[in-house]
Amino acid sequence: MPIFMSYSHHDKDFVDTLAAHLVKHRARVWVDRWELSVGDSIVERVQSAIQEASALLVVLSKASVRSQWCKKELSAGLVRELEEKRVVVLPVLVEDCDIPMLLRDKLYADFRTSFQDGLKVTLEAIAKVTSGTMGRIGTAEHHGDWAIDYGFDDDRYYLRVTLVQFGQGLPYTVLTEIVALANEEGSKRQKAYADKGFADFGQLVVVSVLAGAVAEQNTQIVLRDSQPQTIEFGFHDPRSGIDYEMVISARRLGEDTGKDISVDCTGQLELILKAIRVNRRPLTAEERAALADLIPGLKDLGADPPASV
Fold first, then answer.
1. Alpha-carbon gap, residue 156 to 81, rounded angstroms
2. pTM for this one?
3. Which residues contact 67 (CB under 8 A, 6 or more apart)?
4. How many CA atoms lie within 13 A of 227 on its CB side?
5. Distance CA 233, CA 215 (A)
6. Most confidently modeled of 18-27, 45-54, 118-127, 137-146?
7. In order of start, what are the domains of the chain with their CATH numbers?
8. How far apart, in whole angstroms, are the C-alpha atoms of residue 192 and residue 305?
């Protein structure tokens, strides 16, 4: 999901500069002047963007704190904080001004004396809500914390998803590790992605393949005691022609309830894949051109290439 930028148009030059830096660091941002078209309902589009955003980056200036529109956007963000019980509003201070009372206890990114210092703090803040390599899925009662790492082991590309699932009131947790190991051709493809600066795109490709492979296989694991259980299988991705070795292992930690626990990774991987996709910004024209050399037919595709290429 994008970062919604709340600001006064009096500060549009600063906002354009900040947004460009965030995009350069692969963050996805929502700026009204970039997103709205003639005929759009401003209220509906802005309301929807605020509701769907990972966070609201609130630019504080003399003009914005007087703006009734900015006040409404801030109120909407603070309501989300109360409902979701997490940080949603991220203040950015560009000049001395009368900071709204409900923001005075928040740490803000200070751009008044150094743009680079303010940018560093801002990037650290948004990393918590836009990361494509770790996150949390599920509800407050039953959720999972996940992380992804990937790289090369003896010239073979691997991607590993680690997932810890737990629920409120449950006396145990489940630790699951899912690994995909690409064949020689797949490893060469991932090396080419990395060499051109698209390692994160390559990660998305393999997570998509992994989710599809697990959905097609009988990957349900039953945990009867503290011993880890493992499933191994091969998978051929017909869209890319690449073969993968898949390994899924799971184990229970905590109290022994005497009952079996069934672990099905399909739904969890789909949620993780969705989280990665919504946090990715669309490829720029320059990036699409660079990827066209690696992915046949990319020029004929829509706004973003398919995951499995």
1. 43
2. 0.66
3. 8
4. 4
5. 13
6. 118-127
7. 3-130 (3.40.50.10140), 134-300 (no CATH)
8. 16
